[in-house]
Write a structure and sequence with these properties.
single chain, about 425 residues, alpha/beta, Rossmann fold, seven-stranded parallel beta sheet, 14 strands
Length: about 425
Amino acid sequence: MRLILGLAIYRLLLPLLFVAAFPGWLVKMLRRGGFGTRLGERAAIYSANLKGEPSGAVHLHAVSVGEAMLALKLIREWRISHPHPSFVLATGTATGHAVATAAKLPGLRVTYAPLDFPGMVRRYLRHFQPSQLILVEGEAWPNLLLACRRGHIPVSLVNARLSPRSTARYRRFAAWVRPVFALLDAVAIQDPQDAAIWQFLGVAAHKIHSTGSLKIDPGSGQVPTRRPGFQVLLDALVGPGSARPVILAASTHPGEEGWIAGAIREAAPDALILIVPRHAERRTQVKADLERSGFKVVLRSTMAEGNGRPDRISPPDSSLPCLVIDSTGELCDWTAHADVVVIGKSFLATGGQNPCEAILAGKPVIFGPHMENFQPLASSLIAANAAFTAHDPPSLSAAIRRALDPAAALAATTRATALLQPHHGATRRIVELLTAP
């Protein structure tokens, strides 16, 4: 009865929420180039002929870029032991769609996830007839879950994560969300300690499986690797064989670029600063903010990787430019070229970004006080002195100076790598869970 009443309220409110969110969504699509990418699929309107569509495929739903990268990682691992299944990756954002499409995995159909209106969900399921549905860290959409239950399509949530804010919200409305989460057939959690909250939220104990973190496990996914082409670009800016340190600010959010770059300049005036905005379409604003702070700025998109000659840039000199990586999907390998990595969204925003790529690359990481989305890892890194922390520009400058010390960097990266060990093999364990008879 609670499920029926909750669904009735949800279906009444959903159109109102959609209308309220629609203008902002349009702006995001314009900025991120979503138009012209089969955007009608968000409403489950498909131009492809049914005969050309992968019927009975494994479907993965990934809301944004980070989840799309994890879904691709899971698909690659899946194909090692089960090489023949076909996959559909449904994303919720244009940038996630672009990342999934750019991967060019054979046999992968990239689409947009349907909005959670009953009619759209039914058209989506009729069109593709998925064999199973896998939610990657994603929200459990009530209409989608109910339609899958009625269609006998198993639904699993993998790399399940609840931030402290989400946990508090779900606890407050536990009586209403329990019937929804009870529709899940399996939940793969990152930490055994999370089992209690998922049971409280309505998932039966036998459906909860501790696998470790898909984000942290290298699996068969991309491991940070130095690219010769990237080194050519760096040499064009600092000169071949330069000993200048390279400091990277990863997945920055609005307001952080100039703030972090200023602290880097104070700590290491001779450093080359790499800024990787979370959303590449912010390039114009990022460039303007950095120039107002007194930086000469080069956009990665103006540099040809083949010859390393950036447009409109003078030869290397004492006034090093700040390189803004305004291209999607390159952060992982740029990390391998850095000496220190500063984690974005952890200073002037809430949630933080993933420090694991930097740790896997053996780089010392620095983050601010807001790493809510990566607890308990962030707390473990702090407790083990495996990361450097800061809360304002002076403390960030001090942390950068400590992280540039070779002995301090080696000690921190060694401890950080050890903390990731329990999660090794998580990708394989998730695949085994999803393919079990």
